[in-house]
Amino acid sequence: MESNIWKTNKESVFNERTFGEWGNKSSTEEQVNISKPSEFKIDYVSKPMPIFSTIIQDHVELNKYLKEVILEHRQNNPTSTESNVKAWHSSWMTHNDNPKFQPLVDRVLDACNFVSKGFFQCQSTEYMMFNLWAMMYEESEHTLRHSHFPCDLSGCYYVDVEPDCAPIIFEPVLKDGVHDNNQPFIIQPKNGLLALWPGILHHEVKPTNSKRMCISFNMDKSRGYCSRDEWIKGEQNNG
Question: 1.10.8.100, 2.60.120.620, 3.10.250.10, 1.10.357.120: which CATH number matches 52-238?
Answer without folding.
Answer: 2.60.120.620
